[in-house]
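User: Fold this; tokens only.

Assistant: Input:
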Amino acid sequence: MEKLVITAAICGAEVTKKHNPAVPYTVEECVREARSAYNAGAAMIHLHVREDDGTPTQSKARFKAIMDAIREACPGIIIMPSTGGACGMTDDERLQPTELNPEIATLDCGTLNFGGDDIFVNTENSIKNFARKMQARHIKPEIECFDKSHIEQALRIIKSEGTITPPFQFNIGFGVNGGIGASILNFGYMRSALPEGAVYTATGIGRHEFPIAMLSILDGGHVRVGFEDNVYLSKGVLAPSNGALVEKVVRMAREFGREIASPDEARKIMSIN
């Protein structure tokens, strides 16, 4: 089985220091958390950014400051900025980090009811627009899917538009509010819907983070962990860092004979040019 690529989603847009005091907001805090994940074995950082008070932002300048600082602290690491941003942001706001020409960025392929009145909106036209902008800048999209219908939406766009080209990189998520639940049955259901030859990362939210990681490790997929998705190392025990979450996945992987991919190995596995 090929080496395991671990992505660390270090802060997200919704989780706060009230959930875990180690959640990073400032440039220095983001560097600290990225370094902890990198040193533990993460090849890629999935990056949202915040203002110093924790307010989510898609500011190009803020992304640049944090990305530059992480690259200096973590030589060779892959940084995948989010184009998801936060609920209520416009497409133009969300696309700002693509102007920095990262190697890879997220491409969300469906709308979700996040709870209460919060709706994470991704219309078909928005998805097409994001894909075109990424293609024009030679940015590899990681296709974010939190329901089987999102995979089907992505496949329709792949077939009709030609803006997302193989080899494909998917992230399949489980347990997101408004998305597919986290279970062995649903894991197999989502996994079976992916196109032949696609590489995939699996993400579990909250208490589902490590069970979903285990399924992906055993199936030959890859794993995302981090404070964006889960702030606990085990039941009732707050993770002291993103690195601690990565370390747990590394231990799990090695128990089943999977070695951990370096950033350069991850680039080959995920066909990031």
